[in-house]
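Encode chain A's predicted structure.
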Amino acid sequence: MKLIEASILENIPKEDIKSIDIGDVTYINDLKGLAGQMFQYCIDNKGEALSAVQIGILETWFVMRTIEKEYAIVINPSYYQDGSRYRVIEGCLSYPDEGYVVKRYKRIKVDFWTIHDGDFIYQKESMMGYAAEIFQHETDHGHGKTIAQIGKKR
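Encoded structure for chain A:
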């Protein structure tokens, strides 16, 4: 698996990135297989999460490590602020060895789809801290944004 170059990632128009059709269950096995490769990429490269957009798949989904240190598939994510913003230094697998200061919400309410027992399952929950930062970061990729575009290089 290879990431697309950051310069390409920064120039993907938001309107080119599509949501997953959760009515198409025939896609689940392909999605799970690709997610497994993305999980392994994260493990091999000490990453917490990886967006499909970062590997050149223009769809709104990503994988992220959970509090339990397992990985979850997050499909068609959205979030809503549930608190104030603060500055944080973030890294990204697309910008190795770089850090960017970005503003993130401390707490967010999220909704997304995931895969469980071969079906798409709708999830709605609250997140805070590091998990909320990761969710916002990866959702930004699905909206055509990177930390280099919204933050300041450290």
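The two ends are 28 Å apart (CA to CA).
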